[in-house]
C-alpha cells in the first residue's frame, strides 16, 4: 500500500465499499456526534468523511489536532445510512471508518477560516496566500486558469500557430508604461528592462520567416493596479501572423474566444463574427471605446435642439462649440426624487457641472429645465429619444471630449442602478478604425495607440491628410465592457515608420536609436503582418465572475505593487549594491528610516 494514499479525497464511490484504502489530506472540519468523531478530509480533488470511534487508540489525540492539520487515515470504506447521505458531495454516499491515523503536518491556529468564505482583509489574505489558496472558490479559480491556458494552447496549435519564447531581459522602450529596470553587473551603469510585451520580438519573428507565432507571455509594467489590471506583471496570449489582414486576426480570435468562453461558462456567448464598431461611433453612442453591450442604453446628440433654446446654460455650451448629449431611459420617471438627486451627484463626481433631466409622467412633463423649453423643443426631444409616458431623458452639456466621457460614465451608472444589464451573457465587439494620432494636453500631435500600426491610407494619408483624420488598422476586442486586448496591422515599411514618427514629433534618429532592430530588419524584406494579445488574467476573471483580477492569480501583488507573502520589494545588502555599482539616493524620510534600520 502507498505510504500516503491509495485514492484521493474526491474519487471514492459506492463501488469501493468494503475496500481498505488510505487517504491523506487537510482537516476541513471536525464534528463530535455523541463521542463519535466525523472529520471532513480535504485535498485538491475533493472531500471524504472520516469516522473515528472512541475505542480507537488514536482517538484521544484528535482533540490536539486543529483544522488544516494534515492527516493520513487507513480504514474500510462503508456505505452511509440513507439519512446520512450528502448529495452535495460526489463522495457523499460513503465514508471511511478509520483504523489507523498518522499526523503528516501539524497546523497552528489559522488567522482566518479556510472551510468557508469568511470576510477578512485582503492584506491578511495576501500575507497568508498559501492558506487563502486552499479556500474552495480561489482554489477553483486557479484550476480554471490552468485549464483555460491549456485549451488556449490547443486551439492556437489547431489553427497552425507554433509557440516560441522571447527574451525576458531586453532593452528599455520609450513608449508605453514605465519599465522595470534590471542593473547589469558586468556593464556598469547600464540596465536591462523587463518586457512590457514581446511586441518587437514577435514582429522580428515574422521578419525572420516564421508564419504564425503565439506565446503565453509574461509582461511587466510599472503601473498602478486596479480591479482589471495587476501591478507589476500579467500574462497575455501573445500572437502574430505573417501575410495577414485585420480580418485574418479577427477570424482566429473569434474562434478562440467563442470557444473558450462557451467551454468554460454556462452563459450565452456571441457567435462569430463579432460586432464591429468604429471608434468614433463607439465614443458617440456609448461614451467609451470599451462599451458594455449588455447595457441597452445609448447616447444621442441633442445639440441642435438646444442651440437656440431659452435654457441659456445649454444654449451657451453649444454656442461655444460644445455639445448636449442625452440618454433616454425607459420606465425611469416613477423613481423618487432622491434617485435623480443621486444621479446628479454621481455626474458631478465624474466631472459634470450638473445633470439635466426631463420626465414624462401621466401625460405631464416634469423637469427643473422644462420651463425654459418650448413645446416644439420638448416634442423634438421626445421624438429623438423615442420616449413614452413613464420615461426620462438625461442631459449632459459640455465640450465634446467631456460630454463623451461623462455620458459614458452616466450610461454605465444608470445601467447598474436600474439593473438594466442583460443577464448570463458574454457580449463581444471589435472596436476598429482608431485614429492614428491625437492631441496631447499641450495641443501637440502624438500617437493615440500603438506607434507601430499601419495607417489605413498608407503614405498618401500621412502626406496629404490632417494627422487627426488619419485612421489606423488598430483594433480592440471588448467583452462586457472589459478590454481584453489591443492589436494592429503593423507598419512594416521603414519609410512609413519614419514619416509616422516624424508627424508625432520624432526624427529619424529617434527611430534608428530607440528601435534599431525593427528599423534595420524592415530594410531586409519584411512581410505584411498583424497581431494581438488577449489578456489571460482578464479572460479568466470574466469566466470566474471574479470581482478583481487578484482573485485569478495565484500569488498577486496588492494594489501598491507589494508582495505581502514574500516581502517584496525589499532592501538588499550593501554588497549587492556595490557589485552593481549602485548608490542609493533616497528621499529624506526613507533615508532616515533606512539608517535607523541599519543601526538596529
Characterization of the model:
With 600 residues, the protein is of the alpha+beta class. The chain contains 18 helices and 24 strands. An 8-stranded mixed sheet has the order 6-9-10-24-23-22-19-12, with helices on both faces. A 5-stranded mixed β-barrel has the order 1-2-3-5-4. A 5-stranded antiparallel sheet has the order 13-14-17-15-16. Helix 3 (136-158) packs antiparallel against helix 5 (246-263). The mean pLDDT is 94.
Q: DSSP strand (E) fraction?
A: 15-25%
Summarize the main sheet.
Answer: 8 strands, mixed
Q: Tell the overall outline.
A: globular
Please report the number of helical segments.
18
Fraction of helical residues:
25-40%
Any low-confidence stretches, pLDDT <50, length ≥5? Answer: none
Given helix and strand content, the structural type is alpha+beta
- Rounded to an integer in angstroms, the radius of gyration calculated over CA atoms is 30 Å
Q: What is the mean pLDDT? A: 94
Q: What is the number of beta strands?
A: 24
Strand neighbour order, sheet with most strands: 6-9-10-24-23-22-19-12
Our measurement of the CA-to-CA distance between the termini, rounded to an integer number of angstroms, reads 54 Å
Amino acid at each position: 500500500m502507498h505510504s500516503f494514499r491509495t485514492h484521493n479525497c474526491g474519487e471514492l464511490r459506492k463501488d469501493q465499499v468494503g475496500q481498505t484504502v488510505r487517504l491523506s489530506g487537510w482537516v476541513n472540519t471536525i464534528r463530535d456526534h455523541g463521542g463519535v468523531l466525523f472529520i471532513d478530509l480535504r485535498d485538491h480533488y475533493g472531500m471524504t468523511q472520516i469516522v473515528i470511534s472512541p475505542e480507537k487508540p488514536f482517538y484521544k489525540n484528535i482533540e490536539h489536532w486543529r483544522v488544516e492539520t494534515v492527516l493520513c487515515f487507513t480504514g474500510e470504506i462503508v456505505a452511509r445510512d440513507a439519512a446520512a447521505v450528502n448529495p452535495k458531495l460526489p463522495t457523499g454516499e460513503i465514508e471511511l471508518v478509520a483504523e489507523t491515523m498518522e499526523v503528516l503536518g501539524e497546523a497552528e491556529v489559522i488567522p482566518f477560516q479556510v472551510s468557508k468564505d469568511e470576510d477578512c482583509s485582503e492584506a491578511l489574505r495576501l500575507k497568508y496566500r498559501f492558506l487563502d489558496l486552499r479556500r474552495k472558490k480561489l482554489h477553483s479559480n486557479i484550476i480554471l486558469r490552468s485549464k483555460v491556458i491549456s485549451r488556449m494552447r490547443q486551439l492556437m496549435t489547431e489553427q497552425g500557430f507554433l509557440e516560441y519564447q522571447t527574451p525576458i531581459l531586453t532593452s528599455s522602450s520609450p513608449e508605453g508604461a514605465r519599465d522595470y529596470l534590471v542593473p547589469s553587473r558586468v556593464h556598469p551603469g547600464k540596465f536591462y528592462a523587463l518586457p512590457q510585451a514581446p511586441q518587437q520580438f514577435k514582429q522580428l519573428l515574422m521578419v525572420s520567416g516564421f508564419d504564425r507565432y503565439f506565446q503565453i507571455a509574461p509582461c511587466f509594467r510599472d503601473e498602478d493596479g486596479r480591479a482589471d489590471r495587476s501591478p507589476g506583471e500579467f500574462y497575455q496570449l501573445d500572437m502574430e501572423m505573417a501575410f495577414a489582414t485585420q480580418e485574418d486576426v479577427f477570424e482566429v480570435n473569434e474562434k478562440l474566444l467563442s470557444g473558450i468562453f462557451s467551454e468554460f461558462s454556462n452563459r450565452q456567448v456571441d457567435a462569430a463574427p463579432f460586432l464591429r464598431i468604429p471608434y468614433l461611433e463607439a465614443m458617440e453612442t456609448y461614451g467609451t471605446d470599451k462599451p458594455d453591450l449588455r447595457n441597452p442604453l445609448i447616447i444621442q446628440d441633442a445639440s441642435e435642439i438646444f442651440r437656440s433654446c431659452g435654457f441659456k446654460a445649454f444654449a451657451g455650451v453649444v454656442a461655444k462649440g460644445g455639445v448636449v448629449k442625452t440618454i433616454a431611459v425607459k420606465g425611469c420617471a416613477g423613481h423618487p426624487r432622491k434617485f435623480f438627486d443621486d444621479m446628479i451627484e454621481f455626474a458631478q463626481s465624474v466631472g459634470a457641472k450638473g445633470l439635466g433631466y426631463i420626465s414624462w409622467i401621466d401625460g405631464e412633463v416634469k423637469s427643473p429645465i422644462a420651463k425654459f423649453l418650448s413645446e416644439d423643443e420638448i416634442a423634438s426631444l421626445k421624438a429623438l429619444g423615442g420616449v413614452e409616458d413613464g420615461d426620462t431623458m438625461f442631459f449632459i452639456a459640455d465640450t465634446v471630449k467631456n460630454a463623451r466621457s461623462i455620458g459614458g460614465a452616466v450610461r454605465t451608472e444608470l445601467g447598474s442602478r436600474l439593473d438594466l444589464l442583460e443577464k448570463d451573457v458574454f457580449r463581444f465587439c471589435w472596436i476598429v478604425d482608431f485614429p492614428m494620432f491625437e492631441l496631447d494636453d499641450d495641443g501637440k500631435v502624438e500617437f493615440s495607440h500603438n506607434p507601430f500600426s499601419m495607417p489605413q491610407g498608407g503614405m498618401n494619408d500621412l502626406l496629404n491628410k490632417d494627422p487627426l483624420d488619419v485612421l489606423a488598422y488598430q483594433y480592440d476586442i471588448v467583452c462586457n465592457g472589459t478590454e481584453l486586448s489591443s492589436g494592429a496591422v503593423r507598419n512594416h515599411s521603414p519609410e512609413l515608420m519614419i514619416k509616422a514618427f516624424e508627424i508625432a514629433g520624432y526624427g529619424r534618429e529617434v527611430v534608428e536609436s530607440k528601435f534599431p532592430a525593427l528599423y534595420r530588419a524592415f530594410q531586409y524584406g519584411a512581410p505584411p503582418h498583424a497581431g494581438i494579445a488577449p489578456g489571460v488574467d482578464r479572460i479568466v476573471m470574466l469566466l470566474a465572475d471574479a470581482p478583481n483580477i487578484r482573485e485569478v492569480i495565484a500569488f498577486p501583488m496588492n494594489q501598491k505593487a507589494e508582495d505581502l507573502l514574500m516581502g517584496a520589494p525589499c532592501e538588499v545588502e550593501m554588497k549587492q549594491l556595490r557589485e552593481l555599482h549602485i548608490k542609493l539616493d533616497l528621499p529624506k524620510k526613507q533615508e532616515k528610516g533606512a539608517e535607523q534600520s541599519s543601526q538596529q
